[in-house]
Amino acid sequence: MALPVVAVVGRPNVGKSTLFNKLIGKRLSIVEDTPGVTRDRIYAKGEWRNRQFMLVDTGGIETSTEDVILKQMRQQAELAIERADVIILVTDVRCGVTADDSAVANMLQKSGKPVILAVNKCDTIGEPPMELYEFYNLGIGDPYPISAAHGHGTGDMLDALYEYLPEDAEDDDEDNIKVAIIGKPNVGKSSLVNRIAGEERVIVSNVAGTTRDATDTVVENEEGTFTLIDTAGIRKKAKVTERIEHYSVLRAYMAVDRADVCLILIDAAEGFTEQDSKVAGYAHEQGKASIIVVNKWDLIEKDNKTMREYEDKLKNDFSFMSYAPFLFISAKTGQRVQKLFSLIREVYLQNNIRISTGMLNDVLAYATTRVQPPSDKGKRLKIYYITQASSKPPTFVIFVNRADLFHFSYQRYLENQIRSTFGLSGTPVRFVVRERAKDEK
Ligand code: GDP
Ligand code: GDP
Fold it and tell me: What is the pLDDT of residues 296-353, one digit of tens each?
C-alpha cells in the first residue's frame, strides 16, 4: 500500500513551511550542500511512532497579495481534498480566527476528509492560551496548540494524526517504477496514458483508502510494472488565470516528487516552450531521471533529416539536462510508444545505480593519469578519493586537496569518464567536492 498523504494547508505566514520542516526533520546528510538543489521540496516523507506518511506542503508556491489569498487558499484546500488522506489546517493564535480560516474550514469539513486543526505560534509552554478556545468555532474539532518554531505541542498533534494513518503502509515496492507524465495542457498526456492502457495489461489496484492515486494507472509488461502518474486533470478545471497556472505547475511538481522517472512531453507541432523548461528544471533539481518525449510526431512533415534536426534544436533548449534521452512518438497512431518502456527502465536503473568505491577509484586513477589535474601558481589539484554517497540520483563525494583548483572543466571531464564507464547516459548525477588535508586521508 502506498504511503498516506498528509497535506498542510493554511493562510500565508501562519507557519506551514516551518511546520513542514519540523515534521520531516532536517536530515543533515552529506549531499545537502549540493549546489543547484535550491528549491524546497513539496513532498517529503515523515514518520511518527513507526507510521510513515508523505507530507505535502500545498502552500509550496504562493504569493501573498491580499486579494488573492482566499482564492489561493480555496485552491490549496481543493488540491488537498483531492489528493490527501488527512489534512492539517494551520492557523495562527496571534491572529485569532479569520474569515479566511472559516471559509477553508468549511470546505474541508464538507469534504469529509479527516482534518487536524493546528493553532500555531503558541510559544509558551504550559497552560494553553485563552485565545485557543475561539478556534473551536471553526467546527472541525479540537484545536491543537503548537509551536512549529520550537516544536512544542507537535507531539500531541501527531498523536491525533497517527489515528488516521494505516498500520501497514509502506513505501511502494521497488519493482514498481513510478512514471510522471508531465507537460502543458493538450500535449497529449491523457492520450498517451489511454494508448498505453489500451495496449498493456492494466492492473486495477483496489486498495482501500488510497483515493489519492485515483488518476494513477498501473500497467505490466515484459519490462516490468509501471505506475503512470497522469497530471492531465489539471486542465479540466483550469481557466486561464495566472493563479491557476501556479497550481497546475504545483501539481506537476507533486507528480515529479512522487516519480522515479519523468516523461517530459513536448508537442511536436509547437516545439519547446518556457513552461516546459520550468517543470523539466524541477525534475532535474530533484535528481529524477527524465525522458524528453516529443509527441504528435505524426503531424510533422518529414524527410530523413527531420528527426535529427529537431533533436539538435531540442538538445539546445534542454542543455541543462543534456543527459536526457529523446523519443519521438505519436500517442495517436501508437508509433514508438512501445519503445518507451525499455527506455524508462534503462534510465530508472541508471538513476538507482550503486557503484563500488573500488571501481570508482580505478576510474579515477585511469582518468587522472590520462589527463593531469589542473594546477595554479605551482599548486596542483590532488584528488585523493571518490565514493558514492547515495543514489537517486547517483551522488559522488570527491576528496581533494584544494577545491578551488578543481575547475569546472576538469569536473566535467571526470563526470564524463564516470558516465561512459558505467553507462550513465540518462540520469542526472551529482558531485560533492570536499577538501581534506592529506594526512586526514
Ligand atoms: P507559511 O507562509 O505558512 O509557510 O509560514 P512560514 O513557515 O514561512 O512562517 C511565517 C513566519 O512565522 C516566519 O517568520 C516564521 O519564523 C514564523 N513562525 C512560524 N512558526 C512559528 C511559531 O511557532 N512561533 C513563532 N513565534 N513564529 C513562528
Ligand atoms: P493533455 O491535455 O496533455 O492530456 O492532452 P490530450 O491527451 O487531451 O490531447 C490533446 C489533443 O491532442 C487531443 O485532441 C488529442 O487527440 C490530440 N493528440 C494527442 N496525442 C496526439 C498525437 O500523437 N498526434 C496527434 N495528431 N494528436 C494528438
Answer: 999 988 887 888 899 999 999 999 998 999 999 999 999 999 999 999 999 999 999 9
Residue of 50, 108, 119, 117 whose CA lies nearest to 84: 108
CA 333, 239, 63, 134 dihedral sign is negative
Domain boundaries, the chain: 5-162, 173-351, 357-440
Say how many Å lie between the CA of residue 186 and the centre of ligand 2: 6
Nearest CA to 56 out of 72, 40, 69, 44 is that of 44
CATH second-level architecture of 173-351? 3-Layer(aba) Sandwich (3.40)
Ligand nearest to the CA of 22: 1
Query: Which residue's CA lies nearest to atom 15 of ligand 2?
Result: 188
Distance (Å, whole) CA 318 – CA 424? 18
- 37 C-alpha to center of ligand 1: Å? 23
Q: Which of 78-87, 280-289, 369-378 is least confident?
A: 78-87
Instruction: Say how far apart CA 226 and CA 344 lie, in whole Å.
Output: 9
Q: List all residues whose CB is within 6 A of at least one atom of ligand 1.
A: 10, 12-18, 59, 120-121, 123, 147-149
Q: Regarding beta strands 383-390 and 395-400, do their DSSP bridges make them parallel or antiparallel, or are they unpaired?
A: antiparallel
Q: Which ligand is nearest to the CA of 331?
A: 2
Give per-residue pLDDT as tens, 235-288: 334 344 445 556 667 777 878 888 999 999 999 999 988 888 888 998 998 899
Q: Is the pTM value of this prediction over 0.90?
A: no
Residue nearest atom 10 in ligand 2 by C-alpha distance: 186
pLDDT of residue 172: 57
Pocket test for ligand 2, best of 181, 184, 186 (most atoms within 8 A of CB): 186
With cut-offs at 50, 70 and 90, classify the pLDDT of residue 80.
confident
Q: Where are the beta strands (DSSP E) in 160-209?
A: 176-182, 201-203
Amino acid at 124: T
CA distance 29 to 303: 51
For the segment(s) 357-440, the CATH number from 3.30.300.20, 3.40.50.1820, 2.60.40.10, 3.60.15.10 is 3.30.300.20
**Taking phi first (over 0 means left), then psi (-120 to 50 degrees means alpha), and beta for anything else, what does residue 59 get?**
alpha
Distance between CA atoms of residues 156 and 165, nearest Å = 15
**Residue 269 C-alpha to ligand 2 middle, in angstroms?**
11
